[in-house]
Amino acid sequence: MRPPEITSLLARVRGTLRSLAILYGAGRLLLLGAACVAGLFVLDYALSLPAGVRIVLLGVALVLVLTTAWDRLLRPATAPLPDAEIAARLEARHPDLHDRLLTAVSLSREGGLDPRESSDLARAAIEEAREVLPRLDPARALPGRRARHAAAIGALAAGLLLAAGGLRPELAGIFLRRVWGAEVSWPQRTTLVVLSPDARRSAVARGSRLRIEVRASGVVPSRGTLLTDFGTGGRSEPTRMAREGEDLFVHEIAAVPGDFTFEVEAGDARTGTYSVRALTAPQLDEVRLFLDFPEHTRMKDTPEGSPASDGNVVAPVGTKVRFEGRANKPLAEARLDGEAWVAQALALDPAGLSVAGRFEVAQDGNYTVRLVDRDGLRGRAPHRYSVRATPDRSPRVRPISPASDRSVTRLAVLPLAADVSDDFGVAEARAVFRLVKAAGAESLIGVLPLPVPHEPDGFGPASVRTEAPWDLGAVTVRDSPKDPPRPLRVGDVLELTLEALDHRPGSPNAGRSRPFTLSIVSPEDLERIIADALQRLRESVYVALDDQKRALRLAESAAAGPTDTERDRDAVNAQRQAARKAGDLAGELERRVEEVAVNRLGDPAYRAALEEMRDLARRAGRDRSARAVESLERARLASGEARRAGLAEARELQAGSVGDLEELLARMERWEKLADVLYALRRIHDDQEKARNDLLNYLREKLGGGGK
Length: 708
Description:
The chain is about 45% helix and about 25% strand. The chain is α+β, with helices and mostly antiparallel strands.
């Protein structure tokens, strides 16, 4: 017979095992149920599953739950637990029993011993089991921790699920209805706002670029899709929109072909249908410009019947421009914007087809015409035109005489000459003189008008040479405002500037030459300056004569021998150098002759001798020597008789130039002697005049002191 202690132990362990199996199965079942509910919620919330899919997924979840309930809960709770299995579990947890409990259970049964076993052996085993029962701890044989962990995890999952439902009961309610197939929508998480075009129905220019912009808020998805319909019987292929920044989706249509509608999808949001009308853009089919030029330009205004038609303006500053245009459709507004004037609204005729406005040319720049039609549609691009303002420049003065600073006598008659030009005509030319050095004084001498021919309308020519003599003997100056006028005297320094004015009203533009300095010297000093210059010039005559003789020798050598290209080239180059130096001599002598005449120096014999030397230099350089260069060039390029004739002509001219230069040297030597004599005579005359004046002054003092 089995002892009651063993029977009671086995019963307690069996009950505990069934309880733990039920606890473990319930925990796993709760975890699986919570996972299925959460999974269904997430899938449906993220993808908005169709009703059929939701029902199928619900069925799958129920099958999983029922299967788990059977495997993990019902079957473990009802499965038989034999005494031997329970004893084996206890033996496994208590190795010190040495199978005595399992032996006692196996040899005994409820109500008696196993008849197949020896009664003595069975009783001995039972007695040994009864002795070790007090040391048994049934809890060590039971999987209580695993069951409690499973139950805790299941309870936690179920609790979290219930807490989430409590926090968002509206979502929980929607989910419970949707999971059974009800057509209930989830709350929208993404909101889309179309920024451009800015109205449900807008108009754009056909063929223009259109930018579609949509801003997303709430849950911003990673992509947006544009759906367009151009009225071709169906929607175009969905177009992925570009993303800019955090929440903006954009797409550009390069050229709008015609009317169309569009929608945008992003996340769980979809915009309404937007309609875009493609209309003909307003534009100017015709432009007319009428220019009213400033009076002083003497330019003819644009005739009414012949306006400029390209819209671009090239006109002087101050020109008034009348702008007219005709549009292709009725306009609601037209504006003219410019870089150099205030923006203005152009006047429209009642039909809205003609525009008009005015502006004045002030500087280079551009102006634009912006159009808006009566549908509110703007032109595809503003009409842009250029303005080039022709400046009213100051007159240009190119002095001819004087051409440099110079020394003059106080009795000189100085020729003044200048080439003057202006873009719209010269109104006035003049010479301005200032006394800049006279015993510390500085004053304005005056203004000498220079002749400018005027046309019947009062305007001067655009280009003119003005000439006038200036008699310095008639000039008087004041050393100070209180001093009486006096003539010029030796030591005075004048500053001369040639000026010209144009016809600009109010404040004419003035053009000026550089200032020239005129130093007043005595006739004797100027004669000595000229004599020194001619003495230095004589050295240049020797050099020019040597060069001319060398050129003659080269030409003779070329004529005596056969044709030699190198030798012919040397002859030409040598003669060209000789001609240049002879020409420089002639120019210098011309300046000296002009200087003598202007300053009224010397007597007729003195001036005649200078003029003869000038004529010899002209003939030697600009006549014979220059012509010899041309003859040598022809001979170098010719052959045979033509070459010989050219060389013969050149040698004749070169020989004549040598003779002229030799004669010039002889005359310069005679002129120097004459100049010395004249200088001595002038000194004697001046000494006599000084002695006479000293005597007169002495007599006046004596007679005045004696009262007579």
